[in-house]
Design brief:
heterodimer; A: about 110 residues; mainly alpha; two-stranded antiparallel sheet; B: about 500 residues; alpha/beta; FAD/NAD(P)-binding domain; Flavocytochrome C3, Chain A, domain 1; 2 domains; 8-stranded mixed beta sheet; 18 strands; about 35% helix; elongated
Chain lengths: ~110, ~500
Amino acid sequence: MRKFVSIALTAALSAAFAMSAAAADKTLGERHGGMWPKSAKGFVTKNQCLKCHGSYDALAKQTASLAPNPHKSHMGAVNCEECHSASAAKPTLMCNSCHKFEVRKAAQ
Amino acid sequence: MSELSRRSILKAGVIGVASTAAAAHAAQSSKPAAKRGAANTFDVIVLGAGIAGAVTAVQARMDGASVALIEKMDRPAGNAICALGGFCAWGSRHQKALGVKDSAEEFYAAMMDISAGRADPALTRTYTENIPADTDWLESEFKIPFGKPRTAAYPRLNRVCSINGEGITGGANATFKVLKACEERGVQFFWEHKAIELLTNDRGDVIGVRTQTPAGKKDFFARGGVCIATGGFSANQEMTDRYIGGWASRLALRGSPYTTGENISLCMPLFAKFVNMDQFHTGPIVSETHVNPNEILNSYHGIIIDLHGKRFVDESSTYVIKSLECAKKTLENRAWVIVDSKCHTLPKVTKRFARLNTKFHKADTIEALAEAIKVPAGKLAALVKEYNDRLAAKTLPEMNPPCTYRDPHPLANGPFYAFPYEGGMTATFGGPLINTKAEVQNMEGRSIRGLYAAGNAAGGLFFRNYIGGAQFGGATVFGRIAGHEMAARAKKA
């Protein structure tokens, strides 16, 4: 069941990215409804995110067309909220706390 | 069990914790953070999820120990994952297969020489003797991919093995693979658990560690020992200022912002013997983008100038010295490497700069290049002419400062390039001295029972400089030894 939910959510997310500009203005918190993870006792929330969003390997495949690939780097399994904030519509690349990347489509 | 009378157990439980709490650097706590039980007692505790910690943990596990790997961050976040992937070795399977000829004596001599004779000879001997098998172990056990070894900047022999990053840094690739092996083999991970205090019994043996987690403090206990693999103190400005100097605390960090000296803080209350505290590795960096410009400095082409067009260092020096001099001799800690189109490392360097979105300059003439980098055109042109004239006359060493290239190349074939760099802090070398069993030493020259250190957390192996990749090698050699020793000690407990 969890795998089905994960696949369904991934498909829904892919569709969501292709939606109109009006929908893209919604914050991640709004798009997640009541399902934005709350930290358990102050620990990071990535394991909760990954229950629906699969694994880091799966995320890396999903964003494989981007350079750099934000889900495949020497930083490993970065906590999702370091880039993805409930109060923002788009992620902020945490890599740029050290680097100065501009994420682009990878050259084919 | 005969030693442990009811009275001494009570004493250990109360006084052991209270005595460490009374020490200057210890956290204040009015009661033990956890009772000792099955859930928090292990044969071996390892602090730090870098390459040293991962190797220590997996080795102890392979020796049959139950292992807790305790890491303050939620993921590996130290220097290992930032490392490009150099690994200093001799005599490994893959080096022999590529026809590299070397010997233990020559390797040992090179390691002692690069430290100006101040590296601990016994630790250096241990590294030399173990590194061939340990390199092969990483390759065969964890499928860590070694590419072609390259010549070290010093002494230019094929001792810098190259871990293939497979899309990420070599250091991260190796660390993640060993950590995955830890996970698969049953090492228990405790992320976001920051070690704040070593726990000792009445005899002064290290019996565990107190950690701070977001949910509160938690104690862990170990039968065999605790290994500190938390890296050095490069990112702790108070410590780099205290032990090295204010100027060093202001160097750009080349690696992790989280290597903050827990090796010092945790061991200080136990009166560990700290060595080489003022020693560290410098290298070049561009702090804006964290690109590593070492390959242009290692090309031994061109000239190096400060932002005002003045030379300040012998270009024949190692990249370490060129970086150190940039930090010490230029006001801004910024310099340019000026090369021409004949520089053989250009393809590699320009590709790396482009991938990390870092600006460099290219121009058809020296004058145009000078304008791009905001240096007086006449001054740079005159300097380049002096360099070329002296090269032809074989009087380069008479320049000020001297230029003692062994094999000088003219700076004459456009287009010309200017690559920026700054002197950066790679890693500190100082730490608690270990012996060849990775046991931390106290001020009286004895091992602190139950306390081990490996990787950059440990002191003694490095002084002044190191052959590229020797930090990774040291983490592997002493991580394996620490893992073996603690697992064996746990069996006797």
